[in-house]
Amino acid sequence: MSWISRSPDETRRIAATLGERLLAERGGFVMTLVGELGAGKTVFAKGLAEGLGIDPDAVSSPTFVLAQELPTKSGSRLVHADFYRIEDPRELETAGLDDWLESDVFLLVEWGERFPEMLPADRVQIRIEPGDAPEERRIQAEAGGVDSNDLLEDWRKRCP
């Protein structure tokens, strides 16, 4: 499934709709964000956080800190991680990947395609690419399994 976003605000609204849907989940979920530097991954993360009841201003690019953990309004956690500077998957184990994969965590990973084997197969991959206009973005989402497919179908219904 895909959307065309014509502005950063629209990208945030699309992502917020996913966050609102995730609040209804029984537990956590894993999502990866794919896109070049400056594609809008952190803008998307801010929107997702907003949908989860988190102040979007609390979200920043985790490139230098590896992960940022924020509580949601439902009592679960959003972990916004970035694999960009990771050289070896063992670094993820040391950083706390097992904790990020707990059942109450919504894990959003920028550059997750660098170490896909470290993440569950049943996840949502969100690709953000530049569009035809300067602020336009193409947002494409793919499911990796049954649960992620159900999530995407519901997200599509909420955000046509």
Q: What string gives the helices and strands in order?
A: EHEHEEHHEEEH
CATH topology grouping: Rossmann fold
The N- and C-terminal alpha carbons lie at a distance of 10 Å
Largest sheet: 7 strands, mixed
Structural class: alpha/beta
Summarize model confidence as the mean pLDDT: 91
Approximately what portion of the residues adopt beta-strand conformation? 25-35%
Just give the CATH class. Alpha Beta
Q: Please name the CATH architecture.
A: 3-Layer(aba) Sandwich
Number of helices: 5
Characterization of this structure:
- The mean pLDDT is 91.
- Helix content is 31%, strand content 26%.
- The protein contains 5 helices and 7 strands, in the order E-H-E-H-E-E-H-H-E-E-E-H.
- It starts with a strand and ends with a helix.
- It has a single domain, classed as Rossmann fold (3-Layer(aba) Sandwich), CATH 3.40.50.
- A hairpin with a 5-residue loop joins strand 3 (67-71) and strand 4 (77-82).
- The chain is globular.
- With 160 residues, it is α/β, with parallel strands linked by helices.
- A 7-stranded mixed beta sheet has the order 1-7-6-2-5-4-3.
- It has helices at 8-23, 41-51, 90-95, 97-100, 146-158; strands at residues 2-5, 29-34, 67-71, 77-82, 105-110, 124-130, 137-143.
